[in-house]
Amino acid sequence: MSGQILFLREWGISLRRPWPRRAEAHKRDLIDRMLALYHDMPCILIGDSGQHDPEVYTEVVKAYPTRIKAIYIRRVDKDPQREEAIQRLRDELAHTDCELVLAADSILIAKHAYSKGDISARGLQAVQRDVDAHHHDPE
Questions:
Q1: Residue 116 confidence class, pLDDT cut points 50, 70, 90
Q2: Helix axes 23-37, 53-63, angle to 10 degrees
Q3: pTM to 2 decimals?
Q4: Dihedrals phi, psi of 69, to nearest 5 degrees
Q5: pLDDT in tens, 32-66
Q6: SS3 98
Q7: Which residues have CB under 8 Å from 90's CB, separation 6+?
Q8: Pairing with 28, which of 11, 21, 70, 119 sits 20 to 30 Å away (CA)?
Q9: Shortest CA distance to 27 belongs to which of 39, 42, 12, 17?
Q10: Interhelix angle 121-136/106-115, nearest 10 degrees
């Protein structure tokens, strides 16, 4: 699959600075705008378990049932209650074409996307290089 990749940070969202209050509403608004602007483009949503991303993204799939191919959530904590909540969201999406994947790291996410044909081998290698580069940087 080839196509444009859009990141929310390019639309004014940054992971580096704290989210404003009601960030999930802001994020949902931006996703709605992107889906409207690129009305024929299938989408993959990527986020973290520590934020409200799984809940926001599940609502997006319910609103746009044919547009979202996958939701990738990177697990950033070991809270079993949080994992159970995300599992319940996965169950809510079981009847859709969207797969919610909870993964320990970006490489597992990239490998899954590659197995589905959503990123190229070059894209998978780029994620691996990026993770390796950040892993070796001194804190």
A1: very high
A2: 40
A3: 0.81
A4: -80, -40
A5: 988 998 888 889 999 999 878 999 999 999 999 89
A6: coil
A7: 100, 102
A8: 119
A9: 12
A10: 170
